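Hi U.,

Before I forget, here's the chain from the pilot set. I'm dumping it here mostly so it's searchable later in email.
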Amino acid sequence: MKNIVLGMAMMAISTATFAQQQPPPPRPPMEQGPGRGRFGKRGEMGPNKEKIEMFKIDFFTKKLSLTTAEAELFWPVYDAHKKAAKEIMDSKSNDEIQLQEGLLAARKKYKADLKPILKSDERVNEALKVDREFLQEIRQEMIRRKGFRA
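Structure:
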């Protein structure tokens, strides 16, 4: 009787010890080729990026109280500034001082370009702050959706 109980216990322990979980199913292969990445063709906006762009336009328009005429002039200047900042980050990323000086020069040019559109220093400063607020909003939303604690 002891041998049967001992044998059954050994079988139960060995079964539990060697039991393995099933591996996750393989991920579908990503399409390869020139200009193809994980999220589609280069330059193509996915649905999430389009939503972020719409949120950004709405966020800036409300925070800055942009009129239609101001918005038509504001967005090309904003886009040019973002493009210039990206080029500076790509080209001067090896030298931190040059990077910061380049970004500061681009920001000063952005401020000067916004002055004729927004008409007052207060609104120009608000536009500079709103950009930072927008990035904070996006970060907070990403943290919230991922379930991280801020």
